[in-house]
């Protein structure tokens, strides 16, 4: 089994691990009903529609 010759520093270890923990901005899609931006697979907060059906009654 291979054994490292020297101890890898905390900075080197953290640099290696940092790529895994990058945060991504949430994706947005347009609501086909009202055109408002919303997150995919969620009910539109503006009109209350999901997949062409009214799920939540939103008062104007």
UniProtKB/TrEMBL annotation:
<keyword id="KW-0687">Ribonucleoprotein</keyword>
<dbReference type="InterPro" id="IPR002677">
    <property type="entry name" value="Ribosomal_bL32"/>
</dbReference>
<dbReference type="InterPro" id="IPR044957">
    <property type="entry name" value="Ribosomal_bL32_bact"/>
</dbReference>
<dbReference type="GO" id="GO:0003735">
    <property type="term" value="F:structural constituent of ribosome"/>
</dbReference>
<dbReference type="GO" id="GO:0006412">
    <property type="term" value="P:translation"/>
</dbReference>
<dbReference type="GO" id="GO:0015934">
    <property type="term" value="C:large ribosomal subunit"/>
</dbReference>
<keyword id="KW-0689">Ribosomal protein</keyword>
<dbReference type="InterPro" id="IPR011332">
    <property type="entry name" value="Ribosomal_zn-bd"/>
</dbReference>
<comment type="similarity">
    <text>Belongs to the bacterial ribosomal protein bL32 family.</text>
</comment>
<dbReference type="Pfam" id="PF01783">
    <property type="entry name" value="Ribosomal_L32p"/>
</dbReference>
<protein>
    <recommendedName>
        <fullName>Large ribosomal subunit protein bL32</fullName>
    </recommendedName>
</protein>
